[in-house]
Write a structure and sequence with these properties.
Blueprint (H helix, E strand, L loop, with lengths): L4 E7 L5 H12 L3 E7 L4 H10 L11 H8 L10 E5 L5 H10 L3 E4 L7 H14 L3 E3 L7 H11 L6 E9 L4 H4 L2 H4 L7 H4 L4 H17 L5 E7 L10 E9 L2 E8 L8 E8 L3 E5 L6 E4 L6 E3 L8 H4 L12 H16 L12 H19 L5 E2 L2
Parallel strand pairs: 1-2, 1-3, 3-4, 4-5, 6-9
Antiparallel strand pairs: 6-10, 7-8, 7-14, 8-9, 10-11, 11-12, 12-13
Length: 378
Amino acid sequence: MPKKIRLGIIGGGGDSLIGVLHRVASFINDNYEIVGAVFNPDYEQNIAFAKEIDVPTNRIYKDFDTLIEEELKLPEEDRIQVCSVLTPNFLHFPMAKKLLDNGFHVICEKPMTMDYKEAKILQEVHKNSGKVFALTHTYTGYPMVRQMREMIKNGELGKIHKVDARYYQGWINTVIHDKEKRSSVWRLDPTKAGISSCMGDIGVHAFNMVEFTTGLQVKSLLCDFNYLYEDNQMDVDGTVLIRMGEHVKGVIRGSQVATGEENGLAIAIYGEKGALRWEQEKPNFLYKMSDTEPVQIYKPGHAYNSELSLGASKMPPGHPEGIFDSMANIYLGAAKAIRGEKYNDGEFPTMEDGVRGMNFIEGTVASHKQGNVWVEMD
């Protein structure tokens, strides 16, 4: 198989942050080449953007359905192998489903679908397709998050007691207090964003980090949301109590109105022998704590780290890597899977993570609406 995997991009045109993040990430390890796309629903803007980033325009299509139709006419050795779905949330499910049904691998932004029912349908479609599905929970790509996962797996913390994850942002402050603005932003429109804003967009990342690092699953939860205004249908702040076992409990906190916060994702795991703490805005530092020894600081690229962590480090110690590199590590893991190569199951989030995420989001909404009660997860 040729070195470069033929990549198609759906969405992410113009000044889209997620668009540039995915494009740069796909280039970093020299595994992908963008050969076709629908960057924008306006065809003229679509072509103009392709020219702007120097992507050949002969396979820039007018819409998603045309992309699939025309690509399937090409010889298998020429057509797109994998598509990245970077559109607003309501398009993730129908696009991912049609791609899998037509034999394409998929790299998809989260949340994977609009609801849990769609997630279960997509899970069945994926199982029958035999194709690779990667969900871009970006933060699982950081070397020190992967180191955290491996240390917990190896029993360095002993029995887990307590988990604490938070994701604080402040960006919705600029729109939520203006009635006209909060009525026009797609993130606050349930027909486009789904049933949740805060938990659906960022809280689910904190949830995913909890399950990714500990290897445990959330069994039940209790949630309290804040909407700030009566006419706002979407949560912009929330606190979730979680139970992962009889004696394993914790909290997931999310906010899009945490004034002054930028991208404050952080996680701490506490066990009988020690604890680990990591913060996204200081991604090169993993803190190991105990009751009997000084705090230890783990950093990327050192030989003391696990194979999974070292595989996510592209530079020698002391050279900072960030969000582009983290996303690139997910693309790297997906490339291994697409080529049928051996890979660690922590190298990219899967369909299972997408289903769990939707189960979590719906659980938080149900818990709040039922009067802040405990809700069981599947």
